[in-house]
Structures are given as C-alpha cells and as structure tokens.
Amino acid sequence: QVQLVESGGGLVQAGGSLRLSCAASGRTFSSYVMGWFRQAPGKEREFVAAIVRSGGNSFYADSVKGRFTISRDNAKNTVYLQMNSLNPEDTAVYYCAAGYSTSGRDWSREAYIAYWGRGTQVTVSS
After folding, report:
1. What confidence score (pLDDT) does residue 26 get?
2. H, E, C per residue of the chain
3. pLDDT of residue 90 exceeding 80
4. Pairing of strands 58-60, 68-73
5. Cα–Cα distance, 106 to 108 (Å, whole number)
6. Is residue 104 predicted with pLDDT exceeding 90?
7. Is the model's pLDDT at 27 over the cut of 80?
8. Neighbours of 69 (CB within 10 A)
C-alpha cells in the first residue's frame, strides 16, 4: 500500500510559479512511475505529466510543455511539479498518482494507475 500526500498548492497571480510536492509512504516508491493530473471545475480530470522510475525520462501534456517540469527524488520518496508561467486556465485541483506504465498514452487514459493522492488546489488569478 502506498499513500500519496500532495502539498504546495495555493493562490498565485498569472505569470507566477508554484512547486507542488507529493510525498509517498512506503519503501516501494522507486518501483512506480509517478505522475500528476488535474481537474478544473466542471471539467474532467486530465493528465499533466509523468516521470519514469529512474527519473531519466518524462512526458507532458501539450498544454503544459515548456512551462511545467516534473522531477523526483527517490531517496526522499517525493515527486515534484514545478509550474512556471501559470495562467488562469491552470486553475485546478492537482492530483499525484503512482502507476506502472511508461506510455504517455496510458497515462492520458489513466490506465495502470495504482494509487492516487487526495489533491491540492491551485488557483491562478488574472
């Protein structure tokens, strides 16, 4: 069993930055591909980014490429999402997830996700 706890959300002005963290319990963190999703009000949850077990490769949704960076520290059982150049369309609850697939297509379809966090709110004001 793995528990995921997100932190770092908050209110930021457009053009600003935030860094989200997701701390995982257990000793198997490095066994999972880790990722982030988000859900805006009235919209379906969508894939944001994911990073492979070693941290050597990552993939992103087109909407965040060039602005967001995912990283992980396996020694600290933590995955991060650095978000720059935020705009109001990035307002959402951001969820951390642990999964098995290294396919961006699988992550986009929320396939092979083993665990979810409870989410952290990010609000970007215009």
Report:
1. 79
2. CCCEEEECCEEEECCCCEEEEEEECCCCHHHCEEEEEEECCCCCCEEEEEECCCCCCEEECCCCCCCEEEEEECCCCEEEEEECCCCHHHCEEEEEEEECCCCHHHHHCCCCEEEECCCEEEEEEC
3. yes
4. unpaired
5. 5
6. no
7. no
8. 16
In angstroms, the Cα distances linking 57 to 8, 52, 75, 104, 106 are: 23, 6, 18, 11, 15
CA distances from 109 to 6, 45, 47, 115 (A): 21, 10, 8, 15
CA distance linking residue 48 with residue 37, whole number of Å: 5
Q: Please give the Cα distance from 2 to 57 (Å, whole number).
A: 22
* Sign of the Cα pseudo-torsion (104, 6, 118, 53, in order): positive
Task: Give Dmax (Cα) for the chain.
Answer: 41
Buried b (16+ CB within 10 A) or exposed e, 81-103: bebeebeeebbbbbbbbbbebee
Residue whose entry in the numeric block shows the structure tokens 């150049």? 85
